[in-house]
Specification:
single chain; 452 residues; alpha/beta; FAD/NAD(P)-binding domain; Enolase-like, domain 1; eight-stranded mixed beta sheet; 15 helices
Length: 452
């Protein structure tokens, strides 16, 4: 017998949990379906534990810079401090009871299991079927993409989850992938004295960002002792019970105690049964309109929409879905000023279009690039103060369409640039602002003056 409810949310990561909890508080009967932990990837294996690791690794790096700035200092890395803090503060030892209670405290009902569409406004979980009067929200996130490398399947390779849960530091590690996850974890492990090699098939790290960002990331990793190999791919993987071997097609195979696969993430739409709602199960993402509708009575948020695998994107989309379900007015989705940060040291943050993307869209582009040392604060900072500000302007409209801020506070400096891109503030207005002295963000001023 089918159970009738108002809304079914399949997947309770940050976006799904927000939708379920908010519409339940508004008085609707809501069922939230989760196959793993309520809260999703971010608090248990992604954003939160990784930033705890990064905080610890950066503290080690700062201590090592002390001799150049303040006198003699020494530090002995202790991985157990990181592992214990993640289990105690970030993940509660991977127990989601607090999050489950939070949802149910708002009036939502939690059903544990794998949810699958079974037609319009219908979801099955095991032998149970739920019919949603208002509709269904898909928020199942993504899973690690495992490349088709000969010999890889069947070996005890790591994904980001294993790297977050590691109680002991390996002596050596090979990282397959030079995107944000790969470079962040490579730097963390290297700063704790693990010998790390990054293997990236593209010609540079962070290939989706500006070329200068990839160059800065590679330089930062090499300064921490990481071997960075770009433009090469793993051809074969072996494991002898003690260490991995990775054949990259030249010379002796690379060898390490651990192999971390950080080759991106994907959404398995086929497993969700999207074909029963008239969608393509082989697609890379669920297409949605400005109100996050994928079909009549069906919404999607987060990674599966293909708009960026970021918590802030899923939360932004979740707010739109909540308004639509509750029939409240509000703006539609707008991704012109999509921000993102790679939390390496230095941080590499960006918003909007890269120079290449802007040119591919046929814009008449003006750009500028200034080193962070163009600000007095960058010069004052000394060791660890490497970075830059890059601006991309639509010259015909006189507004910024993209920007990158890299440096010790790159993610924080991005805020003002994010506002400028989102609100389409005229460049002439930005050029006549007063920029606080001495701050990192003062580097934006000479960057604006240098637009050519």
């Amino acid at each position: 017998m089918n159970e009738q409810v108002d809304v079914v949310v399949v997947g309770l990561g940050p976006g799904g949990e927000h939708v379920a909890g908010t519409v339940a508080e508004a008085g609707l009967e809501v069922v939230g379906v989760e196959a793993e932990l309520v809260g999703g990837e971010c608090p248990y294996w992604g954003c939160v534990p990784s930033k705890m690791m990064i905080r610890a690794a950066n503290a080690l790096a700062e201590a090592r810079r002390a001799p150049a700035l303040a006198g003699q200092a020494s530090v002995v890395p202790d991985w157990t401090k990181v592992a214990d803090r993640i289990r105690g503060e970030a993940t509660d030892d991977w127990n989601d009871q607090v999050a489950a209670d939070r949802l149910e405290g708002k009036g939502g009902r939690l059903v544990r299991g794998t949810g699958r569409l079974a037609g319009p406004r219908r979801v099955t979980v095991g032998d149970r079927t739920f019919e949603a009067r208002r509709g269904v929200v898909l928020a199942t996130g993504g899973r690690p993409r495992i490349p088709a490398v000969d010999g890889l399947v069947g070996t005890p390779y790591w994904t980001n989850r294993d790297a977050m849960a590691a109680k002991e530091l390996p002596a050596s590690m090979i990282v397959l992938g030079g995107g944000a996850i790969g470079v962040e974890l490579a730097q963390v492990y290297a700063r704790f004295s693990c010998h790390v090699t990054v293997v990236e098939g593209q010609e540079r790290l962070l290939s989706q960002e500006e070329p200068e960002a990839g160059e800065l990331a590679a330089a930062a990793l090499r300064a921490d002792g990481v071997t960075v190999l770009t433009g090469v791919r793993a051809r074969r993987v072996t494991y002898d019970g003690r260490e991995f071997g990775v054949d990259i097609g030249s010379g002796e195979p690379l060898r390490a105690e651990r192999l971390l696969v950080a080759a991106g993430r994907y959404a398995d739409l086929g497993a969700l049964g999207v074909d029963t709602a008239g969608l393509d199960p082989a697609a890379r993402a669920v297409p949605t309109d400005g109100r996050m509708r994928a079909a009549d009575g069906l919404w999607a948020v987060g990674d599966i929409t293909g708009r960026g695998a970021f918590t802030h994107v899923s939360m932004y989309q979740a707010q739109i879905v909540v308004r639509d379900i509750l029939r409240r007015p509000g703006p539609e989705a707008d991704y012109r000023a999509l921000p993102r940060v790679t939390f390496t040291d230095p941080e590499i943050a960006a918003v909007g279009l890269t120079e290449r993307q802007a040119r591919e869209r046929g814009l008449r582009v003006r750009t500028s690039l200034v080193p962070l040392s163009a600000s007095t604060r960058g010069w004052i900072h000394g060791p660890g103060g490497e970075g830059f500000v890059k601006l991309v302007e639509d010259a015909d409209r006189g507004v910024l369409v993209g920007a990158t801020s890299a440096g010790p506070a790159g993610g924080e400096l991005l805020y003002g640039l994010n506002v400028a891109v989102h609100a389409e503030v005229p460049v002439t207005t930005l050029q006549h602002m007063i920029y606080t002295y001495p701050t990192f963000h003062r580097a934006v001023e000479p960057a604006l003056a240098a637009l050519r």
